[in-house]
Amino acid sequence: MKAEAENLALVGDFNGWNEAAHPMKKAKDGSFSVTVEMESGREQQFRYLADGKNWLNDDAADKYVSTSLGSENSVISL
């Protein structure tokens, strides 16, 4: 994931939407990465949290679903 941010976290169904559970590491080229083991055979909703305040979706998500908060979550199918 590439973002204009100092810090990025991966947040979603798989970690109870815990903003501190999966901080991402920033590479010299400005990209971020993290490795997370997830259960296969299901869909997981997720978003990225940039600098603790800005929610971002993944441009490469399998699909997007609307939330009750008026936004959309990214979805990955495993």
Short description:
The protein is mostly beta strands.
Largest sheet, in brief, is: 5 strands, antiparallel
> How many beta-strand runs?
7
Our measurement of the CA-to-CA distance between the termini, rounded to an integer number of angstroms, reads 18 Å
Helicity range: under 10%
Strand content: 35-45%
Instruction: Kindly report the CATH topology.
Output: Immunoglobulin-like
CATH class: Mainly Beta
- The residue ranges in which pLDDT falls below 50 over 5 or more consecutive positions are none
Taken together, the total number of domains comes to 1
Number of helices: 0
Radius of gyration based on Cα positions: 12 Å
CATH superfamily: Immunoglobulins
Tell me the series of helices and strands, N- to C-terminal. EEEEEEE
